[in-house]
Design brief:
The chain has 97 residues and is mainly α. The protein has one domain. Helix content is 36%, strand content 8%. It has a two-stranded antiparallel ribbon. It is globular. The relative contact order is 0.17.
């Protein structure tokens, strides 16, 4: 998933190398949740799979291997859905909307 500009400083300088190692060495170019293969059509959606590296605790500073998982966009979005909804609600409350 793209890193939001306001969160970029929370990632370690070597994040690209960490993410690459998780996706290509550990996960062998496949989603660790559903098994979809990177750059191939997704078995459910048919869209091109792009592997991402998810932080299971949603904390970019925590790059321990056991907190990271290679996920296709579908699995990553599904995993993050509740967290993102809570953040949207929080931002809405803070803005008074």
């Amino acid at each position: 998933m793209p890193i939001r500009p306001e969160n970029k400083s929370r990632y370690p300088k070597d994040w690209p190398a960490i993410s690459k190692r998780i996706r290509f060495e550990r996960a062998l170019n496949r989603c660790e949740v559903c098994g979809a293969e990177n750059y191939q059509p997704h078995p459910v959606t048919g869209s091109k799979v792009i592997l991402t590296t998810a932080h299971l605790d949603h904390m970019p500073e925590n790059c321990d291997d056991d907190n990271l998982k290679a996920m296709c966009q579908r699995c990553h979005n599904g995993y993050d859905a509740e967290y993102r909804a809570a953040n949207r609600a929080k931002r809405k409350r803070l803005l008074g909307a």
